[in-house]
Each structure stands twice: as C-alpha cells, then as structure tokens.
Design goal:
- It holds the Pfam family FAD_binding_3.
- It comes from Quercus lobata.
- This is FAD-binding domain-containing protein.
- The chain is of the alpha/beta class.
- The chain has one domain: 3-Layer(bba) Sandwich (FAD/NAD(P)-binding domain), CATH 3.50.50.
- The chain contains 14 helices and 19 strands.
- The strands form four sheets. It has a seven-stranded mixed β-sheet with strand order 7-6-15-16-17-14-18, sandwiched between helices. A five-stranded parallel β-sheet has the order 9-3-2-13-19, with helices on both faces.
- β15 and β16 form a beta hairpin.
- The longest helix has about 35 residues.
- It is globular.
Length: about 475
C-alpha cells in the first residue's frame, strides 16, 4: 500500500512566487465532435523536447483517478508534472464512501497504452465481472428484464474484459507508479493566473507554482472550474444513494457479475467485487439533504425495499450498519468548452455525471489519454511550447475531440434516471375480470417507451461504450 507522504512545499525544479492575482477570464461555449487516435509506441516514448527546448511543465489540481492517470502519462512522455491534492486521505475516504470503481474495456485499454505494468497490476487486483451474466432485473420478482453482453465486444476487439476494483487500491497503485516526488499532499489549488509566458497555480497557503499548463482534475466541486466560469450550483438528481459493502458470498456468485434491480422511483445495484465481498447501492427518489436517525439506515432500507426479492433483502440484512453510507447524487449541465488559455479541465471537473452507468472514472481516464496525445503532438511539432497561442489551441483541440462521446454518455446517464421514474414493477397478466386494468397501465406511452429503451437500446449503448466507439486507440499490427 502506498504511504501518504507529505511533501516539501518547493523543490529545485519548481518556481514559487508571491504575486497578486488579477483574475481569470471566462471561456465562450461552443459545440464540438469527438475522435481520438494515437499509437501505443508513440505514447510510451520517453523522448525529451528536441533542440534543447524547455520541457512542457504540467500542473494538475487534484490527486484522484483522473489527476494521477494524467500524471503517469505525462511522466512517461518526459514532461515535467506536479499534482496538487488537498488531502489524499480524503480521496481515500471518498473511495470507501463511493465503493469500488467499474473499469470498462475502453478504459482498461487506455491504461495498457499508458503503462502496461500498471495496467497489469490493476487487472490483477480487480475482479472481472464482464465474463458473467450482467443486466437489469425486476426488483419485486427478481426476474431478468434484459441481459448485457460485456464480454463479446471486448474479445472481438482484443480488449480487456470489464472489471471492478477498490478505489483505494487503484489509487495506491497509481501513486506508487507516479511517485511521491510528483504528488504533493496537503496542497489545495484555490486560484490561478495567467500571463503570455506561463500559468501560475495559487495554493491555499499562499504559495504559487509556475507551469505551462494547468489541468483542473479536482472533481464535481472543482475550484479551477469555478474560477474559469464562475460559481454554479450542481443539479440534484432527485435520488439519494445508500451504499453497502458486505462479507457475503451469494449462491449465484459464479454466474452473475452485477445486476440492477428496477422499481418505481427506486433501484438497487448489486455487484461482486471479489475477495468474498459484495457491493450494493440503493437509490431512492426523495428530496435532497434528508437524514436518517443514528443506526437507522438499515432499518429504513428494509422498509423501502422490504417487499422486493430475496436477493435484495438478503444483501441489506447481511450488511453491518456501520458499513452503510449515504450521499445525495448530483451532476452538472454539460458545458461545451472546458477551459481558456493555458487552463483546461478533465473528468468530473469538466463533466460530472450521474453514476447510472458507472462511467465517471472511465471517462476521466479517456480524457487523460486524449489530452496527453494532443500535448505530445505539440511537443513534437517543433513549436515553442511556451507560446500561449500554441498551448491554447492544443487544449481546445483536446476538448473538441472529447465532446461528442462525453455529451452522449452524460445525456444517457440522465435519461436512465428518467426511465426509472416511469418503470412499473413486475405484474402478472393472468386472465380475470380486472386484467384490462393492467393492460391499460402497461400500454401507457411513457411506460412503453421507457421499457423499450431499457430492454433494447441500452444493451447496444453499452456495446458502444465497451468498444470505445468515438474513442479509438489505433494499435500497430505486429509483424
């Protein structure tokens, strides 16, 4: 496990300044399309800038998954890089709070392109779920509604199969690979300023660091984003989420990877996370900022899901009260420019989305890959990397190439919650004097559309996600 090192404020490779902050400019909003291309041999090269030019210096605000993956990729490119994280222990706590992270095939392929050894460690530590039955089921009856094939699309394209991994373990692997000399703990970026030759990150303690580029990877409550575009309220999804981790091995563990149980205005997600543990999430539609009495989460969950199938009730009962956590679910509206000048965003700082497809971490990893490819092109172009125009153009190109895929996933995650609003629990349609009432209910247009989208469109969308369509890693064929 990586130790949480508290690093010195400055070292010989950094510039610390004390200068006034003139404020940051806002960027205009534009709509873009996406495509990503790059080669493994290109990405893993460790060439320095030719002709003795100054190496590109990248400052990263945020030491979560996105910030660490970008730092690892930048390190392999030979760039100077520094990560500023306000509290690594809080990131670890958030990991426990949010549970394991799902890594789809496209995200795992990106990690392989960045660092094969690190990717191997991650896949060894994770639990493969994509090779089993996964899909949607009715919450009351437990019967399968639709199943997803997460394996075939990956195998056909030579990609790793979907898996889950503990966030804390993933963070440890990444910190060890990036190195403690790059990750600076207890360092919160609260502002920045830019001039024609550099961007300066301003920390909470007043220290300032110069770089060529600043990347905000500081999550949904991003300070970098606020300084770029002004304060904006996050959108409450209308759902609160209880999460639990239990030492319980159900009898179906070798057959089912994960299952989403559906109900009206509530749903329940259960996944094998390896090592004899099951992780679950219980979503319920209600006003934000509600609270539970002490030791009352489990009791309330059994009230909310008490008439559901045994698979759901058993997981709740087998989970100790202290292992049940609760948080409200927020996202933000899509914005179509993520930066200005020498500053850009990635991951939840740029496009926070609801966790319905478990894609927040995967999208951040893909962002890192696209961004490092664009920066690598800049470094190899022969241009003076200190020129603000060249850097700004490179960052806007990264944003443009990510926009279509991100906006599609963001919209789909919101749509999934809307479909749950109209889902009707399992109903028997046996002949009888009142059967016409059930028939009329199921033929309501909104219910019909929601069921069709869930049952037929969602599997195709997941195939698109798994295979990385709109985000192509162009591999070189072996001789």
């Amino acid at each position: 496990m990586a130790s949480l090192l508290y690093l010195n404020p400055c070292n010989q490779n950094q510039t610390c300044n004390k200068i006034p902050h003139p404020g940051a400019k806002k960027a205009s909003m534009r709509s873009y399309f996406v495509r990503c291309e790059g080669g493994k041999d290109d990405l893993r090269s460790d060439e320095k800038n030719s002709e003795g030019r100054k190496r590109l210096k990248i400052l990263i605000a945020g030491g979560g998954i996105g910030g660490l993956v970008l730092a690892l990729a930048a390190k392999h490119r030979g760039f100077e890089v520094k990560v500023f994280e306000k509290d690594l222990s809080a990131v670890r706590g958030e990991g426990r709070h949010r549970g394991p992270i799902q890594l789809l095939s496209s995200a795992l392929a990106v990690l392989q392109e960045i660092d094969e050894n690190v990717a191997e460690q991650i896949m060894k530590a994770g639990c493969v779920t994509g090779n089993r039955i996964n899909g949607l089921a009715d919450g009351v009856s437990g019967e399968w509604f639709t199943k997803f094939d997460l394996s075939t699309p990956a195998v056909r394209r030579g990609l790793p199969i979907t898996q889950v991994i503990c966030r804390m373990e993933l963070q440890d692997i990444l910190i060890n690979a990036v190195g403690s000399e790059i990750v600076r703990n207890e360092s919160k970026v609260v502002d920045f300023m830019e001039d024609p030759n550099k961007v300066t990150a301003i920390l909470q303690d007043g220290q300032q660091y110069d770089g060529d580029i600043l990347v905000g990877a500081d999550g949904i409550w991003s300070i970098v984003r606020s300084n770029l575009f002004g304060e904006q309220e996050a959108n409450y999804s209308s759902y609160t989420c209880y999460s639990g981790l239990t030492n319980f091995v159900p009898p179906y563990i070798d057959i089912v990877g994960y299952r989403v149980f559906l109900g009206l205005n509530q749903y329940f997600v259960a996944s094998d996370v390896g090592n004899g543990k099951m992780q679950w999430y219980a979503f319920h539609k209600e006003p934000q900022r509600n609270t539970d009495p002490p030791k009352g989460k489990k009791k309330r969950l059994l009230e909310l899901f008490g008439n559901w199938c045994n698979e759901v009730i058993t997981l709740i009962r087998e989970t100790p009260e202290h292992m049940i956590l609760r948080r409200d679910i927020y996202d933000r509206d899509m914005i179509y420019s993520w930066g200005n000048g020498r500053v850009t965003l990635l991951g939840d700082a740029a496009h926070p989305m609801q966790p319905n497809f478990g894609q927040g971490g995967c999208m951040a990893i893909e962002d890192c890959y696209q961004l490092i490819l664009e920066l690598d092109k800049l470094a190899k172009s022969g241009s003076d990397v200190q020129q603000s125009y060249e850097i700004a153009s490179t960052l806007r190109r990264y944003e443009k190439k990510r926009m279509f895929r991100i906006s599609t996933v963001h919209a789909a995650s919101r749509m999934a919650s809307k479909m749950i609003d109209t889902y009707q629990p399992y109903m028997e349609f046996s002949p009888g004097p009142l059967s016409h009432l059930s028939t009329l209910r199921i033929k309501h247009p909104s219910i019909h559309v929601a069921r069709a989208l869930l049952q037929f469109c969602l599997p195709h969308f997941l195939t698109w996600m798994i295979a990385g369509h709109g985000f192509h890693i162009k591999r070189k064929r072996s001789a």
